[in-house]
Design goal:
Number of strands: 5
Structural class: alpha/beta
Distance between the termini: 33 Å
Helix content: 40-55%
Radius of gyration: 28 Å
Order of helices and strands: HHHHEEEHEHEH
Largest sheet: 5 strands, mixed
Strand order of the largest sheet: 1-2-3-4-5
Length: 212
């Protein structure tokens, strides 16, 4: 469903509720000061409040034809995350490599990480020629990615003759531990969890570090 439309109808509901409460309050105030009111005046007040709310909504809150409407296919995202859950390291690396090629990266190749049976590295070049390295790691348990996984990636980068440009760590896990996030921030590594990978696939939200 369009989020813009949902917000518009939520505004209508809030307007109607607020003005009807105001109308009821006016009725009770008039009753309190002993103003003579005919039977059914409260219904009249409530109907008038609903009508006024509708007019205000039509004038200012109703989604317009020229207003951009954002659509989210939640099922597609859920399906993408379910596929990621089933991917082993080789299939994950193949999947991420396909996304890299789709989004314009060149010289994309995969390299198995000898020290980590759950990881495969992807080497590629951005449009401006800058080299990039993505470590793809399948989750080895239900918990978050531990700091040691990031530390191993940092150690491998430090051992390289030349440190490449953009560095990313992609995983099928749902999140990263606080230690992993701190280590990644200190080393300039961008972390992509399962949700971020699903958005990359479905929404073509290329990580900014990989954009040429």
């Amino acid at each position: 469903m369009a989020r813009t439309t949902v917000r518009a109808y939520l505004n209508l509901a809030i307007l109607v509720a607020g003005l009807e409460l105001l109308a009821i309050g006016v009725w009770f105030v008039l009753e309190g000061v002993r103003v003579n009111q005919s039977d059914g005046m409260m219904v009249v007040y409530i109907c008038a409040a609903a009508g006024l709310a509708s007019v205000i909504w039509l004038a200012g809150y109703r989604p317009r034809a020229d207003e951009p409407i954002e659509y989210r296919d939640d099922r597609a995202l859920r399906d993408a995350q379910a596929r990621l859950d089933r991917m082993d390291p080789a299939r994950l690396a193949e999947h991420v490599a396909e996304l890299c090629e789709r989004d314009g990266l060149a010289e994309v190749e995969t390299v198995r990480v000898v020290e980590d049976a759950y990881a495969v590295d992807i080497h590629a070049r951005r449009g401006d020629g800058t080299p990039a390295v993505l470590r793809c790691r399948s989750a080895d348990g239900p918990g978050p990615v531990a700091g040691g996984v990031v530390q191993d990636f940092v150690s491998a980068l430090d051992a390289a003759e030349e440190r490449p440009g953009p560095l990313l760590l992609a995983t099928t896990a749902g999140c990263f531990s606080a230690k992993a996030e701190a280590l990644a921030a200190g080393a300039g590594i961008i972390l992509l969890d399962r949700s971020a990978l699903a958005h990359w696939e479905c929404d073509k939200e290329t990580p900014k570090a990989l954009a040429a």
